[in-house]
Amino acid sequence: MNVHLVTIVGGCIDVLPHMLGHYHDLGIESFFVHVQIPFSNDPLVEQAKEITRAFGFNIASVSVGEWLHNSNRELYWRTQQSRPDDWFLIADQDELQAYPRDLASILYDCDRDGYEYIEGCFLDRFARDGSFPAISASESIWQQFPLAGFVSAPLLQANPNKIVASKGRVGLSSGQHFALSGCGCPPKELYIPVHHFKWIAGILDRLEQRAKFRRERGDRYWEESQRFVDYCRTHNGRMNVADAAFYLAEAVPEYPNWERVKQLSMDLASELR
């Protein structure tokens, strides 16, 4: 059984070293890291090469131009189609999937039962005080952002559901939120927490720029980014970690509210399908 990780990075790659280390520890040895840059000679390419070489491989491709949903989806799809019978873990550079047992055994069981993809949902990770600190390369990312909660859905009104793993032949919707083909593992049987380390230094500026970029292009998703910026502006530039609506709790390593959040996400995903 062949298993690969595929990701697309661009703009901010601060989490990438921690992310690659996490998936390497899960047993992944084949990585496809695509780099998307807005202009030629962007120094991000060399940064990405330095990070990936430290793990023994090079970047898979470089694309130049605006970061758009369709081009992003096309890169994922081309990579997966090249190996239609292999398994792919699909994750942005700030997404660390946590499996309840050995990943290889889970995928073997899926093959046995005829399942072609696995779903999960975001668990947003925050610093203990709700601020957005820079990431340290030498300290455990789990310790740097010890709080987890259900924030993207209620605050941004974003879709929290993610396809975390799939066969290469399975088509995915924009944002990898749903599968467009294939037979999935029932979420009640297996639903994977996707620890989302997006909320780091510079996030408010990046989201403000993204909201402006998308709004100018008539992309309705601009509102998601703007909602988070507006929220933080009313809370002294940070996340209000005392707000019970987000189920925030210490999650080093276990998250005590997972069963409740899992059900909330599965219910919302059913409405959005």
Description:
The protein has helices at residues 16-25, 44-53, 69-81, 103-113, 141-144, 152-156, 203-216, 222-233, 258-272; strands at 3-9, 30-37, 61-64, 87-90, 95-97, 117-126, 147-149, 161-167, 192-196, 249-250. The protein starts with a strand and ends with a helix. 36% of the residues are buried. Strands 1, 2, 3, 4, 5, 6, 7, 8, 9 and 10 form a ten-stranded mixed β-sheet that branches. The chain is of the alpha/beta class. Helix 2 (44-53) links the parallel strand 2 (30-37) and strand 3 (61-64). Helices cover 34% and strands 19% of the residues. It is globular, with a radius of gyration of 18 Å. The protein has a single domain, classed as Alpha-Beta Complex (Spore Coat Polysaccharide Biosynthesis Protein SpsA, Chain A).
Give a quick precis of the structure.
The protein is of the alpha/beta class and 273 residues long. It contains nine helices and ten strands.
* Name given to the CATH architecture: Alpha-Beta Complex
CATH class: Alpha Beta
Compute the separation of the termini in Å.
Answer: 30 Å
Mean pLDDT: 93
Extended strand count? 10
Order of helices and strands: EHEHEHEEHEHEHEEHHEH
Bulk shape:
globular
Percent in helix: 25-40%
Strand count, sense and closure of the main sheet?
10 strands, mixed
Radius of gyration: 18 Å
Low-confidence segments: none
**Helix segment tally:** 9
Query: By helix and strand content, what is the structural category?
Result: alpha/beta
At the third CATH level, what is the topology name?
A: Spore Coat Polysaccharide Biosynthesis Protein SpsA, Chain A
Number of domains: 1
Strand content: 15-25%
